[in-house]
Every structure is written in structure tokens, then in C-alpha cells.
Amino acid sequence: MKIKLAVLAFILMPYVLQAHGYWLEVKGSGKPGEPARIQIYYGEYVNQGRMKGKSLDKMNEIKLFVIDEAGNRQDIPTKQTETHWEGTFTPATEGNYQILGINETREVQDWHKHNLGIVRPMQYLRTNYKVGKGAVQAKSVNYFDIVATESDNGISLTAFKNNVPADKAKLTIISPDGWEKVKITTEKGRASFVPNTKGVYLIEAEWIDKTPGTYQDKPYESVRYHTETTIEVK
Question: Of 111, 173, 181, 193, whose CA is between 20 and 30 Å from 21?
């Protein structure tokens, strides 16, 4: 089974805020010089429910960028469609391209209805786009990150906090057919799972930092970090 790794990243401690979340998908030929489309979706992945229209307006603050194997970063402009946000880039050479999304500028939210109080949300996304042959090479980039690699036993995951392996991170894995599993990372930040079918898998995690502060003149009680990683199994 050939496994193509795709996305996003993070970690630490467990809270499920809501069923809705964001995720990345990439569509392209996997050849140098040919464009690839990066798509950002919002909805309930467990039942493949994808939000449309004005529900996507708030995604305009997600900044998308690509990092090649040499460490060069390219910012990717995005535009809104009826079903998702989309950006395009053209890989110049063979290799692995890390695609990341980040939103650290969303305003403070009142999430008392989720039993979280006044929160500053932080959002991270990740995927890999492989061009040509060779193994997928990826490393931690975001402050909270999950790096996914192919192994003999399936998919290996390593969770990071500020480039340090994060132990006891709770990762929720959702398959294309709605199968769900929870994995807790070891002291080295590692976990793994065996895919049960082909398609795009979503890995999500959340961490609540209960340190209060102020952002844009608005006080908050905690910071909620959330990440989604997608993995395409072919």
C-alpha cells in the first residue's frame, strides 16, 4: 500500500471543543512544473459534512505557505469559493513540500457554551505534497506540530511542542469512512496507527493553556491551540 502523507499538526492534552474543524487537501499530478491546488475545508469530517457559503468567511485569516526541502518558504495567496478556500503553487523540482496553514490572529472568543469561558483561539494545519520519487521528509515547523511518516507498521506520528517531542498528547484519528481512534503519545512524542481503508485521514488534537492574558485590548482566560493533520492513503 502506497502512502502519501498530507497534513497538519498538534497536540497536547485533550479537549474536544466541537465537531467542526478545518483541514487541508491537495490535488495535483505530483510532477515538477505542474500546479497543485491546496484546498482548506471547514466542517464535520467524521460524516464528510463540508460547510459552504458565508460559513467560510472567517477562514480569511488562515495564512497558507509552502516550505521546500531546502527550507525555502513561499507564501500562498488564497481565495474563497462556495465550498472552500484555495491557493495554488507550482513545485519547481522533485522532493517533499511541507504545506502549512496558521491563524494566530483570530479575535478573542466567548466560548462559555463550550464550557471554555473567554478564549483566544490558535489554529494550525499541515500537509505534505510529494513530487517525484523518494521518501517523504518532513520536520517540525509550527510551535505545535505533528509530523507523519510512513513505516512498516502503517503511519508513524510524532508530536512536538516548540520543537520538543510532546508526551501524553491525545491524537484523534478519523478515517474516510468515519472510523475513529484515539492515540496517546509516548514520552518521545510518538504514536502510530494502521489505516483500514484508502482515502484521506484526519488527525486532530487540542491543547488548552489556562494562562490568562490580553490580545487586541481584550482579556482572555485561556489559549486554545488546535490542529488538524490530513494523511492520504493510496
Answer: 193
Q: Which helix (H) or strand (E) holds 124?
A: strand 117-131
- Which among 100, 114, 128, 113 is positioned nearest to 28, based on CA atoms? 128
Q: What is the rounded CA–CA span in Å between residue 103 and residue 53?
A: 20
Give burial (CB, 10 Å; 0-12/13-18/19+) of 152. exposed
- Cell reading at 173: 484519528
At residue 29, φ and ψ (nearest 5 deg) are -85, -15
**Residue 85, all three cell numbers:** 478556500
In tens, the pLDDT along 17-65 reads: 345 789 999 999 999 999 999 999 998 887 777 889 998 998 999 999 9
**Which residue type sits at 103?**
N
**Residue 9 to residue 4: CA distance in whole angstroms:** 16
Query: Position of cell 485533550?
Result: 14
Place of cell 494566530: 104
| Contact assessment for residue 158 and residue 183, using Cβ atoms and an 8 Å cutoff | no
Distance of CA 151 to the CA centre of its chain: 20
Yes or no: say if 136 and 5 are a contact pair by the CB < 8 Å rule.
yes
Residue 123 · residue 224 · CB < 8 Å:
no
101 close to 125: Cβ distance less than 8 angstroms: yes
Q: Give me the residue label for grid cell 507523519.
A: 148
